[in-house]
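Onboarding guide, step 5: your first structure request.
Type a short instruction followed by the sequence, for example:

Predict the 3D structure of this protein.
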Amino acid sequence: MVSPMGRIEEEDMGPPWLVPMLRASYFIPCATHGDASKSECNLFCLDCARNALCSYCLINHKDHRVIQIRRSSYHNVVRVNEIHKYIDISCIQTYIINSAKIVFLNERPQPRPAKGVTNTCHICCRSLLDSFRFCSLGCKLGAMKRGDPELTFSLRAKHNRCKELLYGWESDESSTPKKMRKRMDGLALSSDDMRYTNSSGDEETIATISPTAPPIFNHRNARRRKGIPQRAPF
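The system replies with structure tokens like these:
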């Protein structure tokens, strides 16, 4: 019997289908439908978590969660809008290919980073932007196996952290100084919401907190006093 703490640790290390998805072989002829056209395996069922599937195999996976694996520079990738619904992909650099954001499945070692690079993947040393730590799902998983307590694939843990950051000050009103509470009471939520894309690729909306703005004065409609015309000197 697995203890509750053991189940939590397993969830933090990722769902049970994550490792099989990373290890599966893609873009090979299907063992069952190899004689049919376009029978390469580029799909993966998250509920069955076995081998890769072809389009003809989907008839046996109705109502299952199936994602499509794509190819970029001879590496397997998955679109962000498909994978972010199931796992937290924060700290992983995303790329835009064919107008869609993607993440790589496995590590892509880079022996010699380019000159001037200040940030690399913590596992395979691939050059990254400064705001990311890993180049793929597999590299993040490798860092978690090394014991990094700040990393997780659990969406529940991610949402809990977001709530603490956004609404943590509301949970204990008694500890908030009176001056601070009075100042927050005088703030108003503006009608224009701020949109941003987080590291997991989701477009989220946060209401911007700002003081109540005074009415806008339209200078075009204001009357201008006509001055006395003056003749230019000879």
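Each response can be followed by summary notes, for example: The CA atoms of residues 46 and 174 lie 46 Å apart.
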